[in-house]
Amino acid sequence: MTRSSRLAAVALGAAASLVLTAAPAGAAAPRFTPGAPGAGDPYFPDMGNGGYDARHYDVALAYDPATKGITARTRIDARATQHLSRFNLDFLGPLKVASVQVDGRAARYARTGAQELEITPRHGLRAGSRFTVSVAYSGVPKNVDDPALGVSGWIATPDGAVMVNQPIGAATVYPVNDTPLDKATYTFRLTAPKGLTTLANGDPVGSVTRGGTTTSVWAMRQPMASELSMLAIGRYDVLKTRARGRLNLTATDRALGISPQLARDFNARTADVQGFLARHFGPYPFSSTGGVVVKAGVGYALETQGRPVYDLGRRPGTIPSATLVAHELAHQWYGDSVTPKRWADIWLNEGFASYAEWMLTERDTGRTVQQSFDAVYATPADDDLWVPRTADPGRDNIFHPTVYDRGAMTVHVLRKTIGEKAFARLIREFPAAYRNRNVSTAEFIAFAERVSGQRLRSLFDAWVYSSGKPSL
Q1: DSSP 8-state assignment for residue 403
Q2: pTM score
Q3: pLDDT digits over 259-293, tens only?
Q4: If residue 457 lies in a helix (H) or strand (E), which one and from where to where?
Q5: Residue 445 near residue 390 (C-beta atoms within 8 A)
Q6: CA distances in angstroms from 219 to 24, 161, 184, 281, listed in the order given
Q7: Which CATH number fits domain 38-226: 3.40.50.1370, 2.40.50.140, 2.60.40.1730, 3.40.50.10490?
Q8: Which of 107, 146, 300, 376 is such that its CA lies 20 to 30 A from the CA of 415?
Q9: What is the DSSP letter of 351?
Q10: What is the CATH number assigned to the segment(s) 339-463?
């Protein structure tokens, strides 16, 4: 994620009773217990849930310009990871639930806590069993506006809406296991009046117009963390070309006054930068690429999977710079395909994405990566840049400059330490080894040590685990 300030511009119901399912004759009855109402991340203890693994989301959503609201149904295919008596989904804000079904049968539900939709099926769900959850709901979504983290979730625009979710916005639009640890594939079915464009992650599957509305279908076939899902509804100009054999779909909000030539330049820039990064990081990890330029007022760009969102509302008539495109596309390898296990490890996303900016700058301007490093390292030792620990900056500092700039400096110090050949192997083999998975800082360090044959703990102790300006 790139935020303009880098310090990024955040019901009640009765608990359902335990449900038991009869065991086969002669077998001990399993003990069914509720799934945890959180995924265990200390930065966001309410996010995510335990007891099941979401496998696929099918989000059918109809937008009504008259009310600025939505009518939606989300179906989730999941697998129980314990004997479940009940389980939770994250669902935040004023949207009203009309019904909940588990495996096609009505289930009890309650809104509890800060963001919990607590669901009790008619029968307990055995560990390892597959099940489906269908939630019907409607209303006008309300985004999350956190003083430290900025605005995320459903962002209303004059002619529609944009959904950008990092870190906690997905649950404002659809019920979800809202933790990066539970990636899933997605289908979006977006309906809006004719004349409005609907966009989402993944590949366009098709569209159907009936009466005065059009429904478009999008498929993200690679596992995706919920914070990387996106949609856009409004008046957009859309371009479709090919980039290294993949669909390159870019869209620009007409409200920004972007000329047709600049729109074509944005599409071409996306293809060029993707090709440049692929030469360093390995094959692009998703089936389509592109980007969406929006007027949303959030003041940042976001690496939404396969199709980053760039809010240029403060710079109408322009397109994203090459370095901004490099940052968000680098995330497709570092952050999207390979996703941190904990929010404390977000430097693995932002450090490599910021380093990609330095790499592209070297190609395009001749300013070397070393010169970019030196310019940032010249920051005085008493500057706030050196205060947070890069690999554990604290909940309110996950978008702090240290995560970006010190993260990029860490990558460069690693490069200088292990040498060009080992570094080239590392940045290519790491995203391949952990593709579609989650990773920790410790696992990255261990991988770097295996590739380089060097012990690197002291380097990382100084650069990501300690506060203060490291010496060279």
Answers
A1: I
A2: 0.93
A3: 999 999 999 999 999 999 999 999 999 999 999 99
A4: helix 457-463
A5: no
A6: 40, 20, 12, 24
A7: 2.60.40.1730
A8: 300
A9: H
A10: 1.10.390.10
